[in-house]
Structures
1.
Amino acid sequence: MVDFIPFDESHIPLMQTWLSGGEALHWYGRDEPKTEAELRQKYLTEKPRGGTQCFIVNYDGEPIGYIQYYRATDYPEWCSLVSGQPHDYALDLFIGRDDLIGHGIGTRVVKAALDKVVFSNDDARRCVLGPSPDNKRAIRCYEKCGFQHVRTVVTETGEQEYIMIAERPNKSVAQRRGKPRA
C-alpha cells in the first residue's frame, strides 16, 4: 500500500540520509542542500512558498521516498521550456532506499501519485516529468504508468531533461473520488 505523508520537520533527517548517497543522490540530489538547515529552508520554506506540495512516500507503512508536485505554471521559465499548458502539473520523485529499487515499487508509487495526488486536483489535465535521459530505469517505470516522451530539453543549468507527459484518465470527478456515478 502506498501513502503520501505531508513533508514536515520530522522528515529532515531522513531526507538528509537519502540525499547523501545511492540512487537518490545520483539522480536527484546532486545539487540538493546537504545540511539539515539547508534542507529545512528548501523543503519547509522555499518550496511551499512557491506552490510545491512535498510528501514522504510510505510503502506498507515504511518511509521509502519523496515526491513533490506543483502546477507547471508556478514555475514560468520551466513551464515555457517544456511547453507546459495551464492545466499541467509536474511531478518529481525518488525512492530513497536502494534495496527497494528494481522490484516494481516505483511503478506502484508513480501510479498512486497520479491517482491520489496529481489527478485528485479537478483542474489537472496532464502530468509532466523530466528525468535525465540517462535514467533508463525511471523512464521505463514512467512508460509503464502511461507517460510518453514528448521532447528532450536543456535546462538553465545545462542538464538535459527527458520530458514525459501522462494524460488524465477519462474518469468522471465522482469516479476519481471513489463515488458512484448518479
2.
Amino acid sequence: MWSADRFLFLLLSYLHHQASPHVIHRDIKASNVLLDSEFQARVADFGFAKLIPEGATHVTTRVKGTLGYLAPEYAMFGKASESCDVYSFGIFLLELASGKKPIEKLSSTVKRPITDWALPLARERRFKEMADPKLNEKYVEAELRRMVIVALVCAQSRPEKRPTMIEIVALLKGELKEKLAELENDQMFVNYKGFSAADGSTSDCISKRRMRKGV
C-alpha cells in the first residue's frame, strides 16, 4: 500500500547509520520526496544537509527547513541530529497516511499541527478516520495502524524517545511486533479523560516570529 516510501526510509537509515561521517538531511518533507518511473521514492534537495562528526550527538547550527516538519529542539535551539530527520519523517508518514497537510489552517488565526489532530484519534484507536479519503477504504487496516503508531512515535517532542531509522525500517516492515505492541501501549497513547490538544502534544510549537529568524 505505502511501499513507495520504502526506499526513502532505507536511504535515511544509510545516511544516519552507515555513511561516514553520518549525514542529516534537515529538510525531509513531501515536496522533497520524488518518485521515479517505477514509483520508487527518491530524496531530493540536500542543500541543508549537515555532517555529524564521529562521536558527536548533534551539531548546533542556524535553523533551516520547513515549518511543520521541524523537531522542537532544532527549531528552538538549533540542535540538529539524526533524531530531527526522524521527527520530520514522522510528519511525512502522517501526511502520507492521511492526505492532510503538516499544519492545518482552522481559521484566520488558528492553525493545528497534524500531530495534534492525529494523536487524540490514535489514543481512541480511531485509525480508520485517519486514512486518506482518496484511498476509498482500499488499504490494509493493520498497515495503517502500524504506520500511524510509528509516525507519532517518531514525531513526539522528546528526541530521546524517538526510534532510530534502523528501528523504523524494521517496524514498518512488520518485523518487530513485540516492539510495536510496546509502543502502542506507551503512555503517550493513553486515552486520558478530558484530553485536549495541549496535553501531551507532539507539536513543535514554533511561533512565526521565531521562524522568521532562520528559515
